[in-house]
């Protein structure tokens, strides 16, 4: 059976209420297109939140009547991630998951590679093998950020993967910069990918988000994003920047999921996160963790970046990796530094790498960098 259609509800639902609350508090400027998208998300929420029948009827319902999902597309900075935040937080069920599209596909490829190496992987279907534990977990809602396809290995896999997920009652909500018909545009053997586009459109409502403004750019217009020195005045300057980019929202603690573990986030709100230097660079984190952080937030503030001498070599190396990943992704950075940028690296073992880092930090405070959108993530290659 085809999924039931998603239509905006005239009644105010949890997503719409949360959106209207942010607008009322001045955290964002109300936009009709965003409001309509919030209503569409409320319709999906109502479907996935509905109590399922028990027993055999419930199993038939899960497999035969998936709730129609939503594919929300629009240019960068129009509020897709913010709306997904509101939606995911409002969904009351536990059988939900939100992940960046490429991280999800990376997990699928890794699972398939591991299965092929196992004793069972000789003749069995590796796609079936990776879908089975997902279905067994009871997943009902899968939220994927930044859905786009450029890699042929993903393009050839998606139909089989999502055919099985949809058949087992999984509802998809995705954000993207492109309409489904432009996925894998001009890709190799694209005709083999077209059945996936038809499958996708048969299970989601496709909705544009033609918001009038690039809200992400507006946050940083005319702002000084770095402060130098220590003490309450510097902290107050970072506090003011934080409230600017979050629209006055104070933020709350959260986590970033990374390779089966959780990275604590001291404060997060409106697509932004705030860390202390020690939270990121004096903990056992690596490049993969920083990629996950860069995928989850469009703006990051780092407090209390110290001068890094020989006794802080490990922290300096992590800081270099962190800045590389934030820069490559186009994440906006606010930070307080104990000393001027050119004096940050005082360890000859990291001196060469630090030259690049200082150059990138210089660029990251420029109007040109702050005015650009996020860069597309690189798709993971097929695992060996």
Automatic annotation (TrEMBL):
Protein's UniProt keywords contain Nucleotide-binding: yes
InterPro entries with a match to the protein in the record: ATPase_AFG1-like, P-loop_NTPase
Entry-linked Pfam families: AFG1_ATPase
Signal peptide positions on this chain: none
Domain of life from the UniProt record: Bacteria
Keyword Nucleotide-binding attributed: yes
Keywords tagged on the record: ATP-binding, Nucleotide-binding
GO CC, any one term: cytoplasm
One term of GO molecular function: ATP hydrolysis activity
Listed PANTHER family: AFG1-LIKE ATPASE (PTHR12169:SF6), ATPASE N2B (PTHR12169)
Protein name: AFG1 family ATPase
């Amino acid at each position: 059976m085809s999924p039931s259609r998603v239509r905006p509800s005239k009644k105010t639902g949890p997503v719409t209420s949360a959106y209207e609350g942010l607008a009322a508090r001045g955290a964002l400027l109300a936009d009709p297109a965003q409001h309509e998208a919030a209503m569409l998300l409320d319709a999906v929420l109502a479907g996935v939140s509905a109590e399922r029948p028990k027993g055999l009827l419930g199993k038939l319902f899960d497999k035969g009547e998936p709730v129609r999902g939503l594919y929300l597309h629009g240019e960068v900075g129009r509020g897709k991630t913010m709306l997904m935040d509101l939606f995911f937080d409002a969904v009351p069920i536990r059988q939900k998951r939100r992940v960046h599209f490429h991280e999800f596909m990376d997990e699928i490829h890794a699972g398939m590679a591991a299965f092929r190496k196992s004793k069972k992987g000789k003749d069995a279907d590796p796609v079936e093998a990776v879908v089975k534990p997902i279905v067994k977990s009871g997943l009902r809602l899968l939220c994927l950020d930044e859905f786009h396809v450029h890699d042929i290995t993903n393009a050839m896999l998606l139909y089989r993967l999502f055919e099985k997920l949809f058949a087992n009652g999984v509802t998809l909500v995705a954000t993207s910069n492109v309409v489904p018909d432009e996925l894998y545009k001009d890709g190799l053997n694209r005709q083999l990918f077209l059945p996936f586009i038809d499958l996708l459109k048969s299970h989601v409502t496709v909705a544009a988000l033609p918001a009038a403004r690039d809200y992400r750019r507006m946050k940083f217009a005319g702002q000084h994003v770095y402060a130098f020195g220590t003490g309450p005045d510097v902290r107050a300057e970072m506090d003011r920047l934080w409230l600017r980019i979050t629209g006055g929202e104070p933020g709350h603690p959260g986590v970033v999921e990374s390779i089966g573990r959780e990275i604590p986030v001291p404060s997060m709100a409106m697509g932004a996160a705030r860390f202390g230097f020690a939270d990121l660079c004096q903990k056992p984190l690596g490049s993969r963790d920083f990629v996950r952080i860069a995928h989850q937030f469009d703006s990051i503030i780092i407090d209390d970046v110290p001068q890094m001498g020989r006794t802080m070599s490990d922290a300096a190396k992590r800081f270099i990796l962190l800045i590389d990943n934030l820069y490559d992704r186009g994440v906006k950075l606010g930070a307080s530094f104990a000393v001027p940028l050119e004096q940050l690296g005082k360890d000859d073992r990291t001196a060469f790498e630090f030259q690049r880092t200082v150059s990138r930090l210089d660029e990251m405070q420029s109007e040109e960098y702050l005015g650009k959108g996020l860069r597309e993530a690189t798709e993971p290659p097929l695992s060996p």
